[in-house]
Automatic annotation (TrEMBL):
<dbReference type="GO" id="GO:0004735">
    <property type="term" value="F:pyrroline-5-carboxylate reductase activity"/>
</dbReference>
<keyword id="KW-0963">Cytoplasm</keyword>
<keyword id="KW-0521">NADP</keyword>
<dbReference type="InterPro" id="IPR029036">
    <property type="entry name" value="P5CR_dimer"/>
</dbReference>
<feature type="domain" description="Pyrroline-5-carboxylate reductase dimerisation">
    <location>
        <begin position="163"/>
        <end position="264"/>
    </location>
</feature>
<dbReference type="InterPro" id="IPR028939">
    <property type="entry name" value="P5C_Rdtase_cat_N"/>
</dbReference>
<feature type="domain" description="Pyrroline-5-carboxylate reductase catalytic N-terminal">
    <location>
        <begin position="7"/>
        <end position="99"/>
    </location>
</feature>
<dbReference type="InterPro" id="IPR008927">
    <property type="entry name" value="6-PGluconate_DH-like_C_sf"/>
</dbReference>
<dbReference type="Pfam" id="PF14748">
    <property type="entry name" value="P5CR_dimer"/>
</dbReference>
<comment type="pathway">
    <text>Amino-acid biosynthesis; L-proline biosynthesis; L-proline from L-glutamate 5-semialdehyde: step 1/1.</text>
</comment>
<comment type="similarity">
    <text>Belongs to the pyrroline-5-carboxylate reductase family.</text>
</comment>
<protein>
    <recommendedName>
        <fullName>Pyrroline-5-carboxylate reductase</fullName>
        <ecNumber>1.5.1.2</ecNumber>
    </recommendedName>
</protein>
<comment type="function">
    <text>Catalyzes the reduction of 1-pyrroline-5-carboxylate (PCA) to L-proline.</text>
</comment>
<keyword id="KW-0028">Amino-acid biosynthesis</keyword>
<keyword id="KW-0560">Oxidoreductase</keyword>
<dbReference type="InterPro" id="IPR036291">
    <property type="entry name" value="NAD(P)-bd_dom_sf"/>
</dbReference>
<dbReference type="Pfam" id="PF03807">
    <property type="entry name" value="F420_oxidored"/>
</dbReference>
Length: 272
């Protein structure tokens, strides 16, 4: 899928650059069709060498694009929206926000009620085409929701959800990358403690985690079904699992996800 026109990514930090990288790797856009903005243009020198358009001027970037991706921090969004408001056209632009905690309603209140706004919550695995992205909208036309889903489907999996679940999606999918990485890191540390060199232990933990995830994706089974295949009576697997549960493994992960969801919902306070 190659898309005509330009896409402007306003706030090209880690997530914005990961999205741009994913769009190019999937042949959805050429680098020359992607306009990246950042307050310090020097931080985009590598991308400029690769053929991306780079600028510090968000207003001009919006003027030159048909799709506008908002990718700044929540505390920067009101200033950004005021800056680009004169360049936004309800007939021309689709606005996609990947900003945590900022509702479609809050964005439309600043840009205009007729502006097409879709929210998307990807994670950093978007840079390798493996994102889990949740998409929602208040009242954008279906063709714009479908276009947003297609863009993110080129860089991973997409689920459309109700907007009141976006903070939860942030915790489970976006923050979740860090949670699963921490689990892999802990497993590799355990490997070192039982005798493996650090490099070998990490490689073994990573591949084992990948295999476990692929079992569920490919077989379409429940985790407990696959766990049952590994656990035998009085065996070493069930002994390890029970010890982890005694130490609060599952409850800690659940509590962490709940706290992250609560935090995600309070990152943005709309200015009057």
């Amino acid at each position: 899928m190659e898309t005509n026109g330009n896409i402007a990514i306003l706030g090209s930090g880690n997530m914005g650059l990961a999205f741009a990288d994913g769009l190019v790797k999937s042949n959805t856009y050429k680098p020359s069709q992607i306009i990246l903005t950042r307050r310090s243009i020097g931080n985009l020198s590598k991308q400029a060498e690769e053929g991306y358009q780079t600028t510090t001027n968000n207003f001009e970037a919006v003027q030159q694009a048909s799709i506008v991706v908002l990718a700044v921090l929540p505390q920067q969004i009101d200033t950004l929206l005021a800056e680009i408001l004169p360049a936004i056209s309800a007939d021309k632009h689709l606005v996609i926000s990947v900003i945590t905690g900022v509702s479609c309603h809050a964005i439309k209140a600043k840009l205009g009620e007729n502006v097409q706004v879709v929210r998307a919550m990807p994670n950093t695995a978007i840079s390798i085409g493996q994102s889990m992205t949740c998409v929602t909208t208040e009242d954008a036309r279906q063709e714009n929701v479908d276009l947003t889903k297609k863009l993110f489907e080129t860089v991973g999996s997409v689920v459309q959800i109700n907007e009141d679940l976006m903070s939860s999606a942030t915790a489970l999918c976006a923050c979740g990358i860090a949670f699963f990485l921490r689990a892999i890191r802990a497993a590799s540390q355990g490997g070192v403690e039982i005798g493996f060199h650090a490099e070998d232990a990490l490689k073994m933990a990573v591949q084992t985690a990948k295999g476990a995830a692929d079992l569920l994706l490919i077989h379409g089974t429940h985790p407990e079904h696959e766990i049952d295949k590994v656990t035998s009576p009085k065996g070493c697997t069930i002994a390890g699992l029970n010890e982890m549960e005694h130490q609060g493994f599952s409850s800690s992960l659940i509590k962490g996800i709940r706290l992250s969801a609560l935090k995600a919902g309070g990152l943005y306070t709309e200015s009057k």
